[in-house]
Automatic annotation (TrEMBL):
PANTHER family: GLYCOSIDE HYDROLASE FAMILY 16 PROTEIN, GLYCOSYL HYDROLASE-RELATED. It comes from Spirosoma arboris. This is Family 16 glycosylhydrolase. Gene3D superfamilies: 2.60.120.200. Keywords: Hydrolase, Signal. The lineage of its organism: Bacteria, Pseudomonadati, Bacteroidota, Cytophagia, Cytophagales.
Length: 272
């Protein structure tokens, strides 16, 4: 009897605690048995160049497959620097290595397979800007694009301000063929406020979020099991860049009066 009374007392205490405004009730739709674990991050706390233990650069002005107008530089603070707790990726109108614009494209040295990847960022404005937070599979070095796979966590083009794109590209589904798989969400203040861009990536699907609002999902069961359809069973690295012009970003020309323009990133975090 004493044990029964004790159990009832404990049960009542739990119910009262759950009704308290200071105790959050778990949401049955989002509760997980295992809390996400932070496995990598850059909080951009130290002014200067990006952390060379975490980031490397793509360098050059070859158009990057999209007829982009900028030259990507390395370890040049005019184009990539930490400033007041933010990573600044800045595109500038200047003559450099035969190009009329400069910018930066940073790659993580670490790669991940599955998890939640997120970045808190404020985007540039103006016709001709094309910032992106995206990922490529490590096999792209040997298999090439698009067989290596691409996950675009966030893309935005300045001539269509406020429209944020989340997309995947594979051998079977890509923009060259016009078969890419993606969706858009309207965020009106992307150029004046920071927003959280994220994916949650498992063996079976990839979910796309802005400010923790899910707006798109791609599923392996829908796209197919072959590597040409679902190349997302391999480690991917993260890329932060800002292009100028190009096949998409420059679709309606480039406003030459707006430069320099910058993408600001408050932090990047990866959970598993």
């Amino acid at each position: 009897m004493k044990n029964l009374l004790l159990l009832k007392t404990i049960a009542i205490a739990i119910l009262l605690a759950c009704k308290s405004p200071d105790v959050a009730m778990p949401d049955s739709k989002t509760a997980s048995l295992v809390a996400p674990r932070l496995i990598w991050s850059d909080e951009f706390t130290k002014n200067g160049l990006p952390d060379s233990t975490k980031w490397t650069y793509d360098v050059g002005g070859n158009g990057w497959g999209n007829n982009e107008l900028q030259y990507y530089t390395a370890r040049r603070p005019e184009n990539a620097r930490i400033e007041n707790g933010k990573l600044i990726i800045e595109a500038r109108k200047e003559t450099y290595e035969g190009k009329n614009y400069t910018s930066a494209r940073l790659l993580t040295k670490t790669k991940w397979e599955h998890g939640r990847i997120e970045a808190l960022a404020k985007l540039p404005s103006g016709r001709g800007t094309w910032p992106a937070i995206w990922m490529l599979g490590e096999k792209v070095a040997t298999a090439g694009w698009p067989l290596g796979g691409e996950i675009d966590i966030m893309e935005h083009v300045g001539f269509d301000e406020g429209v944020v794109h989340g997309t995947v590209h594979t051998e079977a589904y890509n923009h060259v063929k016009g078969t890419q798989k993606g969706q858009q969400i309207i965020i009106k203040d992307v150029t004046s406020a920071f927003h959280l861009y994220a994916i949650e990536w498992t063996a079976d699907q990839i979910d796309f979020f802005v400010d923790n609002q899910k707006y798109y999902t791609v599923q392996k069961s829908v796209l197919g099991n072959e590597i040409a359809q679902w190349p997302f069973e391999q480690p991917f690295f993260l890329i932060l860049n800002m292009a100028v012009g190009g096949n998409w970003g420059g679709q309606k020309g480039v406003d030459e009066s707006i430069w320099p323009q910058r993408m600001e990133v408050d932090y990047v975090r990866v959970y598993q």
